[in-house]
Amino acid sequence: MNLFLSTIYLCLSLFFTSLLHAENTDSIIVTKVSASSVFKHYRAENAVDNKITDDSRWLNSPTQEGAIWLQLEWDEVRTLHSVQVFSGFQKEQESIVSALGIEFREPDGTWRSIPSAMVKGNTNAALKIYFDSKNEIKTNALRITVTKTEGGIARIKEVVILPSEVKVTEPVKEGNYIYI
C-alpha cells in the first residue's frame, strides 16, 4: 500500500473513531452480549468495546449453520432513536455486512422486528439506522440478524445504540438509514 492510501485510511479510521466517541458519550451502555457463534478470539463483546478496529470486532464462526445474530442487552428499558453499525475488514468492500435486520425484545420476552431497521444492499462500512418515530421502540435488548454477508461471516467492528433523548439531527433519508 502506498503512503497516500495509508494516510487516507488512517484519516478515515480516526474520523470514524472520533465520530463514535463523540456520540458514544450519550449512548446506551450494553451490559450483556451474546451471539449465534464466535470465531477464535473475535468475541461478541468486541462489538461494544468502543473500538472500531479489525483486531477488536465480532466474527461468527464460518462453520455456523442457521441465522447469524448478535444480541445486546442493558439494565433498564429505554426508548431508542437509532443504531450505528460498523462492519467489514480493512478496505475489502466484499467484507461489509450487506443486509441485516434488527429486532427488539418486548416486556413479555418475545422478539419483534423493527420494519424501519431492515437494511438491504448496504455497501458502506459505517451505517446509521434510524427507527421510525411513529412506533416507539422501548426495550432493554436488541438483536441484530445478519441476512447477507460474504462467505456467511459477519464482521461487526462496533455497534452504538442511541436513546431517544439524545438530540441528533435527522438525516436526509434513503430508506430509514444513512451512510456515515
Automatic annotation (TrEMBL):
Residue span(s) of domain F5/8 type C: 16-164
Keyword Signal recorded: yes
The entry's keywords: Signal
Domain of life: Bacteria
Pfam families: F5_F8_type_C
Signal peptide, first to last residue: 1-22
InterPro entries attached to this UniProt entry: FA58C, Galactose-bd-like_sf
Protein name: F5/8 type C domain-containing protein
Source organism per UniProt: Lentisphaera araneosa HTCC2155
